[in-house]
């Protein structure tokens, strides 16, 4: 299996893993809490590995594919997305908002250095996807891909903004907004690798 197919499958497996893990995790609310919270607790290693494997596969795929993804700039932005996913796994968020069970149902005033690094990495992840899609809209020759990439750019860009506000407001649906944004973006990235393969 080529590195591009590995990257594609890793994108889709990432979504399946966090959905199944979230649905079966005691005390975790898939609707309220973000994917990153799954890296906490006794089973947290599973989401950490999910971040690391998916990010490494995407980064490797982008490096190997290069211009085969559509052009060099697109490969670079997708590669940055992969590196940021690895960083999201390397630096965990802090326990908060009731997870893991027993954690106060609030947001701490002070956060750890690894939580802050996780936040920065997450900002890169969720910015790189719509930016990649915008670049693809310009760079890819196929009309269908231009349209699909444009829709993806709009949906993931809007998802980034809505999730950011929902997180700040501690919305009970913040996790659902984030997961929907991830599903749209990771599906597109995976199909981009399939196109290159």
Automatic annotation (TrEMBL):
The organism's place on the tree of life at top rank: Bacteria
Keyword Membrane: yes
Keywords associated with the record: Membrane, Transmembrane, Transmembrane helix
TM spans (from-to): 46-65, 72-91, 121-140, 147-164, 176-194
Keyword Lyase: no
Name used for this protein in its record: DUF998 domain-containing protein
Organism: Isoptericola halotolerans
């Amino acid at each position: 299996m080529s590195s591009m197919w590995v990257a594609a499958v890793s994108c889709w497996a990432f979504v399946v893993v966090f959905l199944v893990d979230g649905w079966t995790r005691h005390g975790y609310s898939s609707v309220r809490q973000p994917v990153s919270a799954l890296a906490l607790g006794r089973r947290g290693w599973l989401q950490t590995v999910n971040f690391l494997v998916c990010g490494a596969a995407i980064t490797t795929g982008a490096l190997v594919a290069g211009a085969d993804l559509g052009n060099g700039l697109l490969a670079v932005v997708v590669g940055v997305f992969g590196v940021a996913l690895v960083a999201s796994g390397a630096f965990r968020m802090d326990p908060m908002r009731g997870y893991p069970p027993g954690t106060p149902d609030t947001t701490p005033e002070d956060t750890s250095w690894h939580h802050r690094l996780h936040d920065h990495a997450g900002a890169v992840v969720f910015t790189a996807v719509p930016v990649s899609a915008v670049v693809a809209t310009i760079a890819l020759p196929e009309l269908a891909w231009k349209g699909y990439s444009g829709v993806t750019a709009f949906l993931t860009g809007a998802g980034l903004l809505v999730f950011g506000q929902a997180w700040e407001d501690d919305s009970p649906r913040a996790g659902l907004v984030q997961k929907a944004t991830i599903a749209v973006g990771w599906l597109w990235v995976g199909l981009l690798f399939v196109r290159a393969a």
